[in-house]
Records
---
Amino acid sequence: MAWKALVVAEQENGTVRDATWELIGLAHRLAGEAGGGAAGVKALVIGHGIDAAAAEIAGRGAAEVIQADGEALAQYTCDGYDRAIEAVAQAEAPDLLLFGHTPNGWDVAPLVAAGLGVPLATECSAVAYEGGRPLFTRKAFNGKFVQVVDMGGARPAVATMQRGAAAAFAGTTAGAVRRIDPRVATLELKSRFITIRKGEAGGVDLSQAPVIVSGGRGLGSAEKFSVVRDLAEALGGQVGASRPVTDAGWLPHQHQIGSSGVTVSPKLYIAAGISGAIQHIVGMRGSGFIVAINKDGDAPIFGVADVGVVGDLFEILPALTRAVREARG
Amino acid sequence: MKIVVLIKQVPNTDSPFRVNGAGTWVDESNLTFGLNDYDRYALEEALRLKDAGRATEVVALSVGPERAATALRTALATGADRAIHVRDDALTGADPLGIARAIAAAIKDEGFGLILAGLQADDDNYTQTPGLVARLLGRPCATAVLKIEPGDGVVRVERELENQRVQVVEMTLPAVVAVQTGLNEPRYASLKGIMAAKKKEIRTVGLAALGLDAAAAGGAGARMKTVRLSPPPKGKGAEILSGPAADVARELVRRIREKTGVI
């Protein structure tokens, strides 16, 4: 049987999300490795009234787009999407079933895997074929280790892929669109979409800041955050934080940088007392120049930083603040 | 309404981590263990619902080796009413689907209204057990939940999306809810709680009692296997500066000026 990958596309109000193009790019690369062809790259897009999104995906990498379109699928629900995906996965019997590691992707992928009775590899940064089998690379222990998993020959091998795991497909295709009725009725579902809304509005917009100084768990308390604030002020920058800091209430949630917070790409990013869990790194690795200060020389943050200092941030930060003030006169 | 909280005992994050001899996981011999951080939030949410008179019983459940009983004891000391420990030598090497099958079998006849869990575990970071359990039980599931509001036969939750947005979802009970950290402030066990926990029940069950065997839920039937575990590649890696703080600071200023022009 010819090799086949099924990419679960994501769209919101008809707009295809960027993670989808990366998944399609990945599927094209793997088609080559697995001895398949571009004809084996298929996508499933779910929603209601999404003809334009389906056509766009068929034009940007998918040999065939399966458009599961129905009123009950107009909004994301865990069981509605699960049923649609399971039904298509069973009919198509792909070798790979790929999701983005997004809030909806990680929500529904386990349901699908359990429904199909196959294992799931989550938040993967890479996939490669070795000896004819796909091996999935991911982080474990919050980034302290890289784990490579084998799926025991399961078909499909199901995975959620981290953003940036592959380059987006850049070519154009003349793929087909096949519209199906997955026969999901709202009445049968055990979850109901109510609304999507913005969380509490914040006074800071870190996404546009040219300089960000971030503090992590290593600061120890809200009071001690002043060393981070002082440096940010000296540099004319903003204050950021990793999740443990905002969870502990040392700073409001609007300051949180990472997969569940804001994604930033300033010219200068200084991380102090942040070990560098993958959830934080995906939110800041696009920064121009990264400085990391941490007492643990093995902290994963040093893997993405340009320059690092292994030491006590309560000595380094004040010294750096003084040096910046001197340099600026 | 009865609530079960799925908890996992994980190595403390400041443990001295080393890869084991086979290169497939960490060497556990020098690690210290504690309750998974996310699970503390799930437990706290369950205890708050009980404090508010909206839950009648809070049960803590863990799948793990003998040492996992310590985590269950912590949950009991914090306020859970009783605990279930799924323990079986055959579970060594089980994959997430196997673990989920054991959990589903252990809770299916207990009549729980809510099945609470943490979004992910701090060791394997798998982020999938709650969803697997939900599908095996044929129940709905919401993940990365920041707010839980039970109603009559339903629960309304807020799921965290990107860019500070939330999705509000209503689910028919029983339902599985995997919480995000930060949705509450977890309490710690009091001395009184620790004393009271000594009298509380931890029921230990093996796979056979759950109608399962090693092929269905244990290591023998596991399909997902870790081929290798290694420290992250150094990649470009940071150039490490060292010396007295004032010298390091001046060198940093020089580099920042050269590379970014912000000073």
Note: The CA atoms of residues 124 and 302 of chain A lie 20 Å apart.
---
Amino acid sequence: MMQRLRSAVPYVFLSVLTVPIVVGYIWLVISSVSMRTYGLTAEGLTLENWRFLLEPIRNRPSIWQVLLSTLAFAVPLALLDVTISSAAGYALSRLKFPGRRLFLSMTIILHAFPSATLLIAIFFVLRAVHLYDTIPGVVLVSLSLGLPLGIWLMKGFYDNVSWDVEMAALIDGCSRIRAWWSVILPIIRPGLGALLLFSFLNGWGAYIIPYTFLATASIQPISVYLQSLTGDYTFVNYGVVTAVGLFQLIPVVIFYLFTQKYLLNLYSGGMKGAS
Amino acid sequence: MDVHLENISKHFGKVKAVDDVSLEVKSGEFVALLGPSGCGKTTMLLMIAGIYKPTAGTIRFGERVVNDLLPKDRKIGMVFQSYALYPHMSVFENIVFPLRLQRIPQGEIKKRADKMAEMVQVQQLLDRRPGQLSGGQQQRVALARALVKEPNLLLLDEPLSNLDAKLRLAMRAEIKRLQKDLGITTIFVTHDQLEAMTMADRVALLQDGHLVAYRQPHELYDHPNSLFAAEFIGSPPMNFLNVRVQATAGGAALVGDGIDVPLDGEVAKKAAALGAGRQVIMGIRPEDVSVAEEGGDGRAEVYVVEPLGRDMLLDLRIQEAPVRVLAPPSFHAAIGSSISLVFDRTKIHLFDPESKEALLN
């Protein structure tokens, strides 16, 4: 009896913590299909809030344009992140070069760096290279801020691959690069996949960087579009806001549901749970 | 292809992992690099493979100096202690990987793969992944992969360490037979003296990065040139007793606490030549000591008796000094009882206590 009670304690604890979050999500869903809500009670069920799927909301680009902008931002970000991180991670894990120690410590320090403090400086830099208010510009900025973590994670994955396998590849006839491409990368494939997903999801929900450095509405991603709906000086239609919010949220939830196994790789730092 | 190591050293910072080692492996020979953990044997193997570059010295394959030659250009095959199979490839793909890298046509690849698979008996396993194989199976696949490109040199790093006792026995014979059939020059690393003795044509004994001895197994066993060699080779290990040389009417005797070993003939002359009163360490193997009825060279107290089936291993004490003796399986003695021992004069080894060198060879 005591055993049952004791094992129930973590569940009780976690339930208490998650209740506010769950309630929030419930309200989100309810609000997206109502005219008005009082607490969690809906008043006037309607699908009007979802009209933005068919026609653009006044003075704004269509949601599909926004979706395209978001993808144009998140996909290159993820691909570049994985490509650069996997190369840099390998170098840090396997190669001896001058400044390696320094590079390693910088990677950790930069990851912890508060990026918000750099916003003004980045603005001047972007303007100087004519990348302000462009998708490539924000991709570059987000990439730079996200690389320290990506490199650190990749290095961790490489560290878990035994030297033996690499030495075997070199003896079997591989050059260093061939060994990396044909033997080591396939071994850390789960890690690569996890970083790709992680980076993409970060890009999908990115707000501060796109908000600060994209001025043209037609290339702003969905988070900035959402903000523009709440920033109106007129009456805010929370029904529409929550509908758009759900629109942004649903792909993320679906992604997480199907790829949890891979993402856990990142959090646990190992290669477990993947084939 | 023969392999020459000339004054090879490898330093990692201040640590001298290998210190001025020279040895030569003849074509077709099966050589063991034997020594305790940390003696530099794996480092040497990796230098021969080209993974490490020697800090000093030259490595030659035949006439060619290979110090700067990349591993992939050395025409060698290597089996790692962990087997290092590629986990994301099937057994077949693992075996043919070296051939794919050489851009050998598909038909030839299939032929060689089948030949290899049959040689190491893994034909049934070609579609499996390494993770689905047992340790013994993985090792055989690793062997196939090493040999598929028909290398000039085969390197093995502790090939039997990860196998259970029974499999070890079987694989020992398999590997030795395979090497003889193929005639390929082979160098392997091990810390197990039994492995080295049973498989190798010659054994290179290493200690702290130095080459202590490089002889045939029976020479190392019968005539160890140092205390280290004497105590490392042979199981149960050699017994060591502190004695001093005494001049006697018959020639010489070795006298210690509770021991009096009179010598005659050649042995006595050699012992006498060492100088009367000199302190030496006497070495005698457990199988060269026998139990006597009376008299003998000394009395020992029985500490423990271990039946081995084929022999009886007696753990004895001559006063405080431990001595092990291999007796016939029918021997009985109670713990604490006292027995007489006789040492085989032809099998006595003497070592200098300071230099640890053999004195009678």
Note: The interface with chain B takes residues 162, 164-165, 167-175, 178, 183, 186-187, 189 of chain A (CB under 8 Å).
